[in-house]
Amino acid sequence: MERVMGIGGVFLKARNPKTLAAWYRDHLGVPVDPDQTHGVLASSGPGEMTVWSTFPTDTQYFGPGPATFMVNYRVKNLDAMLAQLRAAGAQVEDKVEDYEYGRFGWATDPEGNRFELWEPK
Fold it and tell me: Taking every annotated instance into account, which residue ranges of this chain make up the domain VOC (predicted)?
């Protein structure tokens, strides 16, 4: 059985992504550069980083619906995890995106919360 290896990221919708990112930087110490909306919270080795980021409220990245956040989970084998979810009857997107830092896929839990799966390189 495939299992999540860790949290790859936490993403929040914001009316003003830069202002909210600055608030988290100034009041909680989230490592976000002043001109950015994202930062790396932790990194314990290759592919082990956890990203924190704000997105505009009208982003489609979180999927349809009113969700104000999305969690990214690190996995060892994206294809196996997606197949496992499909076999269990979960709603899984057909698209998979490949980047130099890994592969991404998306699914939705039974309550309609979209989540992202990341297989680091």
Answer: 6-120
Quickly list DSSP for 75-107: ES-HHHHHHHHHHTT-EE-S--EEETTEEEEEE
| Residue keyed to tokens 């998306």 | 106
What is d(CA 35, CA 57) in angstroms, rounded to the nearest whole number?
19
CATH topology (fold) of 4-120: 2,3-Dihydroxybiphenyl 1,2-Dioxygenase; domain 1 (3.10.180)
Question: Structure pTM?
Answer: 0.89
- Please say if the pLDDT value at position 93 is more than 70: yes
Which residues are bridge partners to 9 per DSSP?
A: 51, 72
Which residue's structure tokens are 């009113």? 66
Burial class (CB in 10 A: 0-12, 13-18, 19+), 109: exposed
Q: Please report the pLDDT score of residue 64 as a whole number.
A: 81
Find residue 76's DSSP bridge partners: none
Tell me: pLDDT of 47 over 80: no
Q: In whole numbers, what is the pLDDT of the chain averaged over residues?
A: 92
